[in-house]
Amino acid sequence: SPIFQATAASCTPVGTRDDYPVGRNPRGVAFDPVTNSVWVANNGVQVTGVFSNTVSKVNINTGTRTDYVVGSYPRDVVFDPVTNSVWVSGNGIVSKVNVSTGAKVSYSIENAYKIAFDPVTNSVWVTQVNGTPLFSKININTGAIVSYPAGGDTAGIAFDPVTNSVWVTDTQLSRLYKVNINTGTKITYSTHPYAPLDLAFD
Q1: Distance between CA atoms of residues 202 and 198, nearest Å
Q2: Of the four, 3, 20, 57, 96, which is 20 to 30 A from 139 by CA?
Q3: Span between the terminal Cα atoms of the chain, in Å
Q4: Alpha-carbon distance 89 to 112, whole Å?
Q5: Is 120 exposed, middle or buried (0-12, 13-18, 19+ CB in 10 A)?
Q6: By the 8 A CB rule, do 69 and 54 touch?
Q7: What is the tens place of the pLDDT at every residue in 129-167?
């Protein structure tokens, strides 16, 4: 399909677009340089009325797609270059999927939402919504889980390699948390009157 650039005078094609079908209501997406694929968390409700519980792997060269069963209601996905896995957050479950074999390990995390990889402590960090106000850290090698209290629902999360921190948004209380990845020390910043949903490190 063509991609167009519009001006006041005309609309001219500037490139092309290829569309690839995945599951319903795709949300999170991550690139995997090991198998040259993108992984997509399928979040929507199937025709049967059941929540999707798959993540799709799409080869960037051939478009070949493979679906893997993960926890229900997948929300986000991140690539982990240490164990060559993708981590998928879902409704009560975080799934670790080997990018080459599809082997899966599941971890119990209440209402897991967004997820970020931390290469310093070899962990993934997970925000949690609609439940106990927490965010959690999972060691990618041992599976050990440490949870940290928050004021309200946590949503966006980003790793900061300069200060070795993760930054977490609290949409319920209009806050931003900076958390030291080694000590768990937390600094709270007010974002009132805004309720931040997501963020990125620049």
Answers
A1: 13
A2: 57
A3: 32
A4: 5
A5: exposed
A6: yes
A7: 988 899 999 999 999 999 999 999 999 999 999 999 999
